[in-house]
Amino acid sequence: MNDAMVVGVSKRFGEVHALHQIDLQIKSGEFVALLGPSGCGKTTLLRLLAGFESPSSGEIWLNHERVADKNQLKPPEQRRIGMVFQSFALWPHLTVYENVAFPLRHQQNVPEVYKNNPGARVAEMLEMVGLGGMEKRYPSQLSGGQKQRVALARAIVFNPTLLLMDEPLSSLDAELRIQMRKEIQHIHRELGTSIVYVTHDQSEALAMADKIVVMRGGRVEQAGTPHEIYYSPQSPFVAKFVGRANFVKGQWADPHTFLLERDGQASLPLRVSQDFAPFHADQVLPVRPDQIKLHPWNEGADGVRGRVQHVQFQGRELLYSIQIGKEEWEVASDIGTSFSYGDQVAVEILV
Amino acid sequence: MAAAPKLKEAATWLVLVPVAFFFVYPLLKLLLLSVKTDEGIGWGTFAEMLADARTWTAVVNSLSAAGISTLISLAIGVSLAWLCAYTDIRWKGAIHVCALLPLLIPSYVMTLAWTQMAGPAGVLNRAASWLVGTPVELWNVYGLDGIIVVMGLSHYPLVYMLTLSVLYRIPKELEWAARSSGAHSRTVFWQVTLPLALPGIAGGGLLAFISGLDNFGIPAFLGIPEGIAVLSTLIYEQVIGFGPSAFARASVLSILLGMIALAGTGLQWLLLRKSRVDQTSAEDRSVRRPLGKRKSWVEAAVWLFLVVTSFLPLLSMASTAFIKAYGLPFISENLTLKHFLFVLRDHAGTREAISNSLMLASLAGALCLVVGTLFAYWRIQRPSPLGKAMEGAVSLPYALPGMVIGLAMILTWIEPIPGWQPGVYGTVWLILIAYVTRFLILQVKSSTVSIMQVGREVEEAARISGGRFWTRWSRILLPLYAPGMLTGLFLVFLTAFTELTISSLLWSSGAQTIGVVIFGFEQAGSTTLSTALSTMIVAVILLLLAAGGLWKRYWQRRVEG
């Protein structure tokens, strides 16, 4: 069983509190994404798991062994963890083969089969990441995407207990990022290793993770499945950070009825099936751009009236900015609709 | 499991105590001696020295030699840097190497070369006399004017290097933006390029000024025979002259010289901090100003300059070394190898000096390599105000003039701790201690560059892949830090191998260095011997340079692709 646990961990750097009382469980085979803006503590948490930092308080457990608390630290080289760095961190003076074979020679508890025939194992790994036959190249002879694959192969070659990835795709171009997502998913399926993946890109987290941990200011803001995070954000921050959200103004009559404010008209009651308790105090309803539908406005109709302020063509969808009273809402609409600047529209909210 | 905090604390003390003892304590000793009088603490020696007209003459000579030579260095260094960084002049690599030569060839050797070219009986004056038909003296390099010219030519590489690096880092777009706003290319140079490059230029100028104050070889060869003293030669004469209060008087002069030098260093540090060109921004080495039709003229001028200031003096020196007796014309029946054979084979002092210098340079290089690299590593891994202060302390002996350090070393190591006389005074070991103290910062700086370039993640990748301490250092870190470490080793070795200033104070019989022997030959008037030994030194330096260049090329092909 390969699992990891973070129990009540805090980390201070001098006067700066990087992490406050973090609890986190990574189950065997789980793909956990740590998501948050820069400075939220996600990278610090990853470095604590790796053993590059020691916690100021709290404990870190790997495979039912306590590897760190405030007094003791099991160093990274003894933890059997694979890690992919943001900068790839390939050793430029070693060939691709030597880079990938390094953990086989130096890690602990490497299966005998791999140890006895490292050549075959390295070849197998390179094949898996699509770099078969590139053993003799030096990192300087590889493209960015190829370097990333070598880094990945090096991290998984010895069957790590845990695989850590620190913004591994952030230095690749957009097209390559999408492709590498699939490959990382593929590798996760093949190996079944637990993965902790740090990113500030919400779409990466939503696309790949089993569980997303949204962090902010050194605290866990919300943890849950991608579906939960996207459709039931538990705080305005999560709603804004993961996917876009409009905070629609109105009043909560009761936990399942939201009274939508309208200019010069009586408020419009909306049925809300989900629990949006964290938003009750602010008297707002979070609405995703794709949860709003636009219709042509008919004079005298009973609905919410808006005016098109901007239209952005996005290929498979249109992104509208709709002026409603003093507010501006973002609306993602399929390509079938066609409104242009200045049009009056009826706005329908589907939550 | 490791108890990390205690280890960190121990490491800090392990650095702090030696740094304080080796780098700060000697300077305190020097300060203390200058204010020690028969009645205890007092300003007696200061008052006596400041009332002495010779002190003020030396101060004025030092300042004017360093100051005016800096202007020469600035003019040459900035022009050459601009030509190499901005224009399409050809053979930039060769120009670069030639421009750096004056830094690698010790200044006293270059001075000796100049005396053979432009001395009273030098090539220049003899050629002029032959042309005119009667004896004439075009220019005599001995004297303050000679000191200024040779100093300017020795130190322009400092201006050149700093200016070059800042020019490469000025974003091209800034100049394009000015051009597209309607500015003429001359306006762009004065309004954009020059202001942006100014911190680098001024930093290089100050470095040249400090080096001018520090320099002993040039005024010793060109000034002492003419009775012209600067502060460094005056300190030397005080210490060598002995007498009851010689050390106290020399220490007062050292403090004067040290304060001027530190003021310069402080100013330079402020300027570099204010630099508006980002030091980490990428270098842009593309051509920005094609020279067009003027190109061949400019190239001819540059090469004429390099030949006249570097090669002609060295060739003049070499020609003297091959002449049977000083003053004979350079024709085949007057040529001989006997001076080379004499210094290599028959002159015991020279043989001893060569082996001393080799030993000193190797040991100083090896010690600095290990200590300097570990210090740089510690400093980068644990950035702290304390580490910064310690780096400052380590760089002090290099920022201060060599004479000052030489004196501080004598004062400290006769009896480092009351009651303990290690007996290193008067042996080569004191010279070794002095070299390591003075040159350690060269290694620290060079290693720092490599360690910063390699970055933290590369080591972390080795740790997380299971690499233990020795594996990490032997397989990953050392091979990657090698370029910076070897650059530092090269610098320390070369500087120590040909060092003169410190060893001129610390030598004793049996503990001479190559620099001291050449200086001794020159003072005794054995010009053919001093030139022979100097010529061999230059040959060795050029060979080392070529070897270093080849290795660097191999490395770049391997790692940078």
UniProtKB/TrEMBL annotation, chain A:
PROSITE patterns: ABC_TRANSPORTER_1 (PS00211), ABC_TRANSPORTER_2 (PS50893). This is ABC transporter ATP-binding protein. It comes from the Bacteria. The keyword Nucleotide-binding applies. Keywords: ATP-binding, Cell membrane, Membrane, Nucleotide-binding, Translocase, Transport. It comes from Brevibacillus invocatus. Residues 4-242 form the ABC transporter domain. One of its GO terms (cellular component) is ATP-binding cassette (ABC) transporter complex, substrate-binding subunit-containing. PANTHER family: MALTODEXTRIN IMPORT ATP-BINDING PROTEIN MSMX, TREHALOSE IMPORT ATP-BINDING PROTEIN SUGC. GO terms for molecular function: ABC-type transporter activity; ATP binding; ATP hydrolysis activity. SUPFAM superfamilies: MOP-like, P-loop containing nucleoside triphosphate hydrolases. InterPro entries: AAA+_ATPase (IPR003593), ABC_transporter-like_ATP-bd (IPR003439), ABC_transporter-like_CS (IPR017871), ABC_transpr_MalK/UgpC-like (IPR047641), Mo/tungstate-bd_C_term_dom (IPR008995), NA-bd_OB-fold (IPR012340), P-loop_NTPase (IPR027417), Transp-assoc_OB_typ2 (IPR013611). Gene3D superfamilies: 2.40.50.100, Nucleic acid-binding proteins, P-loop containing nucleotide triphosphate hydrolases.
UniProtKB/TrEMBL annotation, chain B:
The keyword Membrane applies. GO terms for biological process: transmembrane transport. Belongs to the binding-protein-dependent transport system permease family. It comes from Brevibacillus invocatus. InterPro entries: MetI-like, MetI-like_sf. It is found in: Cell inner membrane; Cell membrane. This is Iron ABC transporter permease. The lineage of its organism: Bacteria, Bacillati, Bacillota, Bacilli, Bacillales. GO terms for cellular component: plasma membrane.
